[in-house]
Amino acid sequence: MAKTVYAIEGLDRLGKGTLISGILNREGFYNVIHFGKPEVLTTYKNAKQGYDEIHVPHSRHPLYLYQRESFINSMLIAKSGARVIFDRWHLGEFVYGPMYRAYPGDYVFDIEHKVDIQDADIRLILLLEDFEHSKHFESDGESFDDTKRRDEQELFVTAFNRSIIRDKRKVVVTDSETGGFRPKEDILEEVLA
């Protein structure tokens, strides 16, 4: 039976878009909400400069506030019963906030409790790369820092384990024999089963 909400997390270039297309083709219409990295808007750029210079607490940092409100609103959408797929969701903030934006990302777990999403019909999917066998990743120069992929994935796993969402699945996308991607139909079956 299809879930109301699918939330798909993981490193860049592990097939989130391909998986979403597969879910849509198999299950029908869903609203797809993509959480990309925050845009470099002048207001945030200026605020970050101020943050770096005078050490404004992260709880008042405009980018932090923007991210927090975005994820609170997305949790409310998830709880509403809307059919939605989140292409990236709140767990990435636990990874990217401290690594690249100079503020902690632990607040995402407080949001899960604040909005009380335990009863929502959500399946959280974490796509993983098997670094011991992987030959499918080649840098496209668009990831934050390609050398930090292992560190990022470790933080995603930590965030995934800490999340209170009940229906969670870790899905390894790497074929251990070939080092390439597993067949997309196999990954889709694992996600939807």
What is the CATH class name? Alpha Beta
Topology, number of strands: 5
Helix content: 40-55%
Sheet bearing the most strands, described?
5 strands, parallel
Beta-strand percent range: 5-15%
Annotated CATH topology: Rossmann fold
The Rg value, from CA coordinates, equals 17 Å
* Average residue pLDDT: 84
List low-confidence stretches: none
Secondary-structure element series: EHEHHEHHEHEH
In the CATH hierarchy, the architecture is 3-Layer(aba) Sandwich
- Which overall shape is indicated by the principal axes computed on the Cα atoms? globular
The CATH superfamily turns out to be P-loop containing nucleotide triphosphate hydrolases
Distance between the termini: 8 Å
- What count of helical segments does DSSP give? 7
- Tell me the structural class: alpha/beta
Number of domains: 1
* Strands side by side in the biggest sheet: 2-3-1-4-5
What do you see in this structure?
The chain contains 7 helices and 5 strands; from the N terminus they run βαβααβααβαβα. The longest helix is centred in the middle third of the chain and has 19 residues, at 62-80. It is α/β, with parallel strands linked by helices. It is 45% helix and 14% strand. It has a single domain, classed as Rossmann fold (3-Layer(aba) Sandwich). The chain has helices at residues 16-27, 42-54, 62-80, 91-100, 107-115, 149-162, 184-192; strands at 5-10, 31-34, 84-87, 122-128, 167-172. The protein has a 5-stranded parallel beta sheet, with helices on both faces. The model has no long low-confidence stretch (mean pLDDT 84). Helix 1 (16-27) crosses helix 7 (184-192) and helix 3 runs parallel beside helix 5 (107-115). Strand 4 (122-128), helix 6 and strand 5 (167-172) form a beta-alpha-beta unit.
